[in-house]
Design brief:
Blueprint (H helix, E strand, L loop, with lengths): L14 H34 L15 H30 L6 E8 L2 E6 L7 E5 L4 H9 L18 E4 L3 E8 L4 E5 L4 E5 L5 E6 L4 E7 L11 E7 L1 H14 L16
Parallel strand pairs: 1-5, 4-10
Antiparallel strand pairs: 1-2, 2-3, 5-8, 6-7, 6-9, 9-10
Helix pairs in contact: 1-2
């Protein structure tokens, strides 16, 4: 869940995002050391080689040891960065055996979700942002807690997944290019018309997690949030049974109205 005036990364809810947090901290350590070294070097050079201390400038044209050092050391730094970077890419791109699949379609300006293989009838629904009036009504009628309905992020229908299960996400677009992004899950993937991209996550804590389209896709780009509710296996089974009864035909867009996860 994002917080007011937040400047750091959102809290991690998946193993991928935990690794991203670690990698971010590791890069910050490297950047800090390099910046400190460069600052110290600038101060030393300004003090040691000023005109007053060196009225006659040096005629040095090359220094073999120094040239080797400023070539080898940056290469070693890049290797130290590259190794965990490749590990992160491997973790993100190699999708393990999934417990369930959710197909997501980006549209102007909302998201559609389909659950195509959950042991029986497939179903799907649209998820649209609540405007201020709808949000206020949902909170006042206790359909959703105020703490779980942030402005511009609360939606009418949340995608629901079970905690501790591997979820494969298949992403496409219906009109223009969108980008499906959920920071707490470590997910950011293009939704391109005519192309199916895949990613995955394994949410390790129950709760509500928000994201947004992060690719400018038109007039209302800023108003197409993403909401995932992570629940226990029992609550997910109950939600799934209810949803299958309500949505017999996932291909009929007129029937794609989401079941409540509450």
């Amino acid at each position: 869940m994002p917080s007011d005036w937040q400047i750091n990364l959102q809290g991690a809810a998946t193993p991928v995002m935990e690794y991203i947090h670690w990698f971010h901290d590791w890069l910050n350590v490297i950047i800090f050391i390099i910046s400190l070294f460069v600052l110290g070097l600038l101060i030393y050079v300004a003090w040691k080689f000023n005109e007053k201390a060196n009225p006659v400038p040096s005629k040095t044209t090359h220094h073999a040891l120094l040239e080797v050092a400023w070539t080898v050391i940056p290469v070693l730094i890049l290797v130290v960065i590259a190794i965990p970077s490749f590990r992160l890419l491997k973790l993100q791109l190699e999708i393990p055996q999934a417990d369930l699949t959710v197909k997501v379609t980006g549209k102007q300006w909302y998201w559609s979700y389909e659950y195509p293989q959950d042991g029986g009838a497939a179903f799907g629904f649209d998820s649209l942002m609540l405007d201020e009036k709808q949000r206020a009504e949902a909170i006042s009628s206790n359909k959703i807690a105020a703490a779980e309905a942030p402005r511009l992020l609360a939606v009418d229908n949340e995608a629901v997944v079970p905690v501790g299960k591997i979820v494969r996400i298949q992403v496409t677009g219906a009109d223009v290019i969108h980008k499906f992004t959920v920071p707490s899950f470590g997910i950011k993937i293009d939704a391109i018309p005519g192309r199916l991209n895949e990613t995955w996550f394994k949410a390790e804590r129950e709760g509500i997690y928000y994201g947004q389209c992060s690719f400018i896709c038109g007039q209302n780009h800023a108003f197409m949030p993403i909401a995932f509710r992570v629940v226990s296996a029992e609550r997910y089974a109950a939600w799934l049974a209810e949803s299958k009864q309500k949505f017999a035909n996932a291909g009929d867009a007129t029937n794609k109205v989401a079941a409540s996860a509450q």
